[in-house]
Design goal:
With about 180 residues, this protein is of the alpha/beta class. The chain contains six helices and six strands. The protein has a six-stranded parallel sheet, with helices on both faces. The two termini are about 25 Å apart. The model has no long low-confidence stretch (mean pLDDT about 90).
């Protein structure tokens, strides 16, 4: 099944991490892949300790709005290969879980929607990835505003709407709370 957590509110990644904790507590392996992040946020440390496989590209340029066209082009190539890496690692994890529970693996694509929306990953590539993954993989996509095609492809689609956020008052993300 495919789940999407999207919107402008805080909690999309947090919801995905909560699902990962639940899966790991039930001996279901987790592959947690982050787009557009540097891998230094607190959830990465916690998920590693719980046994999740963490995938983060070596290339990071910060916020999309600050990227040059050269950086955007480089990231397009990186993310295309990264999606293939995620698929390969997920299939390896599945080999180890053959014949066990119905859901054999949870795969999180954190901020993948934001990468698609900003032209850093072709939506068609993501849709092909989703089609190529085995049925017994639970895939969670987070980010902003999925396209109609992605939303229709999902089995769950939850919008996390902001009503108020410290960022609106120029308060930076706090370690352990927003990052």
């Amino acid at each position: 099944m495919i789940q999407i957590y999207h919107g402008d509110g805080k909690g999309k990644t947090t919801a995905a991490v909560g699902l990962c904790v639940r899966a790991l507590g039930n001996h279901i392996p987790v592959v947690f892949a982050q787009f557009l992040k540097d891998g230094k946020s607190g959830e990465i440390i916690g998920l590693k300790k719980l046994g999740a496989k963490i995938l983060i590209p070596d290339t990071f340029y910060g916020f999309v709005r600050g990227m040059s066209e050269k950086q955007r082009n480089a990231l397009r190539d990186v993310y295309k290969l990264f999606l293939q890496q995620i698929q390969n690692v997920s299939k390896e994890v599945l080999k180890d879980k053959q014949g066990t529970e119905k859901v054999h693996c949870v795969v999180v694509l954190d901020e993948v929607l934001h990468a698609c929306n900003n032209g850093l990953l072709e939506e068609e590539e993501l849709l092909l990835f989703l089609e190529d993954m085995p049925e017994d993989v639970e895939i969670i996509c987070t980010g902003y505003h999925p396209s109609k095609r992605l939303a229709e492809r999902a089995d769950y689609c939850s919008c996390i709407q902001k009503e108020k956020h410290p960022y609106d008052k120029n308060i930076a993300a706090r370690r352990g709370i927003e990052r």
